[in-house]
Amino acid sequence: MIEMHDVRFTYAGTIKPVLDGIDVMIGNNETVLLLGASGAGKSSLVLCLNGLIPNSIYGEFSGVVRVGGKDTSITPIAELARQVGIVFQDPEAQLVTMKVEDEIAFGMENLCLDPSEMERRIEAALQQTGLSEFRQWQIDKLSGGQKQRLALASVLCMQPRILVLDEPTANLDPEGTRELFAVLRNLRKSGNYTIIMIEHKLDDVMDIADRVLVLGKNGRIIADGHPRKVFYHKYDELIQEGVWLPYSVKFTHELRKRGIAVAESPLTVKETISMLERIRLTGETEELALQAATGSVSSRIAEAANHTDTAHIFAEDMQPGLAAAEKELAIEIRPAEFKRKNECILQPMHLCVPKGDFLAIVGKNGAGKSTLARYMIKLQQAGKGVIYLHGRDLVEWSVHNITKEIGYVFQNPEHQFVTNRVFDELAFGLKGMQLSPDEIYSRVEQMLDRFGLKKYIDANPFQLSHGEKRRLSTASMLITGQRLLILDEPTFGQDGRNAHQLMQLMKELQETGHTIIIISHDMGLIAEYADHAVVLKTGRLIFHGTVQALFDRKELLVEAGLNLPPSVEIERQFRAVSV
Predict the structure, then answer these.
(1) Which family does this protein fall into (predicted)?
(2) Which CATH number belongs to the domain containing residue 336 in this structure?
(3) For tag attachment on the chain, is the N or C end more exposed, with fewer CB atoms within 10 Å?
(4) Is 45 within a domain?
(5) By residue range, what is the domain housing residue 504?
């Protein structure tokens, strides 16, 4: 179905090829997981399949790409669109109408389908993607995750034989992720699609993927085969490349590193728990296994389980304001309705964020997480006496002074770019600080080094990969030295190494007195780095307490559409079977 022979591509204006000798064949009805570090060329590879490279995206191209026997370099893109449907990682890049049902119908109208057939496909796609109730909605009213599901629905309606998904769950909450992967499982079972997926939530897709392809930073395929073979036989090389790995693989590797003989190679949480139940552990090896299970990921949760009285955790959960009151507050929100055009968008809440806290804001898509953050930085105006920054009413703060105190990284990094050069983007905020040109250059150079962006110093920010854009947007926020940092989906588009380096940097800043607030759907990330969590549901604050306490509240996790991360699930199941 898909053939690529010695494919090479270098973007216009660059020197290094992003694809450098790709040779691969993908058969009918295969489900392939495409992995690689940020900027390795994953998105570029899939853009070759529908002819956008080289027909619309210009650069130096050589080699042959065939889809269904057709050479994509000479086949019209409109014809290839009938065979290859792509869902991009940024849904706004492919949504072209104002209304949900119009967006789904758009592609079919171009094919001149019968209205009754269009209606049937629209209904089916809405149901598959959980958007039936939003059919008449304006697209600009949808959350980021809802827009991503809409993009998938508009592709499914075209009934392509090849379905390409570029980080399809990047904007989805845990519940939305589960629903989307359930759709993909059904599509795979139907036997009607070849599915190519770029994804980093690997623990959820190990039962979907038949094959794993890994692109190296050198623009070549460095691993190809069954997931079990690739992840276990190429473990060290993948770690070196910075590729995301399933937690079960990392856990099993830790067991072996600690001297525990493990013959099995599990890929899923279920397989890992079954393996643990079959291992006969002595007292010594049991402790080693527990260390591997908790490791650096859930050590604080494990410690809380061992040494913290559950009633005390719940007391703290119910009265988070009491603990915060003992510390100086970075942010305080007092009960009041948050309205926009006379519509209540956030319910009254009392939220105290002490200085030096690492707080995660979680909840379903559309729960109000980003809205709450926007109120904190005065992008949306609350009334007098509602929000206090460092003890002073936010109404009294000028926007200029707020930006000196709070750094904000938007969910979409392109929304905060203001120049056409990476160096200028980083220097922009420094130019208003009365620094010398030498000092500005020195600070920019340090930040470029820290975020692995030095080679892009003269590049256009809008032409970077999504992961590189995210690193640039974060670097441009950090460079001016604000003490309160808010990051909306900070690891979106990042590879494993860059994601953890960024979060480790946030922890280091917290240790120097910075207050860190992240908005994230990544529960594993929250388990590893956050101290406290806020859970929102349809604009209501339903939880504020420690991360440990949140993971103890099973009914609340269900209510909020959240889930235990694999690290915590394996650790707790291990404790249960080892008692």
Answers:
(1) Belongs to the ABC transporter superfamily.
(2) 3.40.50.300
(3) C
(4) no
(5) 329-413+483-577
Pick from 311-325, 352-366, 489-503 the range whose average pLDDT is largest: 352-366
Q: Give dist(CA 459, CA 442) in Å, integer.
A: 18
Per DSSP, 188 falls in state H
Dump pLDDT digits (tens) for 113-164.
999 999 999 999 998 888 999 999 999 888 767 888 899 899 999 989 999 9
Q: Tell me: do 496 and 556 sit in the same domain.
A: yes
Rounded to whole angstroms, the Cα distance separating 560 from 562 reads 5
- Using a 10 angstrom Cβ sphere, with 0-12 exposed, 13-18 middle and 19 or more buried, the burial of residue 288 is middle
CA atoms within 13 Å, Cβ hemisphere of 359: 26
Indicate the number of domains in the chain: 2
In a domain, 477, yes or no: no
Q: What is the DSSP letter of 129?
A: T
Q: Are 475 and 20 in contact (CB under 8 A)?
A: no
**In terms of residues, how long is the chain?**
579
Assigned domain for 63 exists: no
Query: Which tokens is 5 given?
Result: 């022979």
Does 166 reside within a domain?
A: no
Say whether both 293 and 346 belong to one domain: no
Task: Give me the pLDDT at residue 105, please.
Answer: 96
What lies within 8 Å, CB to CB, of 108 at 6+ separation is 117, 118, 121, 157, 158
Question: Which DSSP symbol is given to 556?
Answer: H
Q: Give the predicted TM-score (pTM) of the model.
A: 0.82
pLDDT score, position 283: 55
pLDDT in tens, 299-344: 433 333 333 332 232 233 334 444 444 579 999 999 887 877 667 7
Residue 379: strand, helix, or coil? coil
- Residues 543, 490: one domain? yes
Given a cut of 50, whether residue 437 has pLDDT beyond it is yes
The owner of tokens 């728990």 is 273
Q: What is the pLDDT of residue 301?
A: 33
Residues 269 and 401 in one domain: no
With 0-12 CB in 10 A as exposed, 13-18 as middle and 19+ as buried, what is 26?
buried
Beta bridge partners of 19: 9
456: Cβ–Cβ under 8 A, 6 or more apart, which residues?
422, 448, 464, 468, 472
Same domain, 272 and 404: no
Task: Give the CA count within 13 Å in the CB-facing half-sphere of 303.
Answer: 9
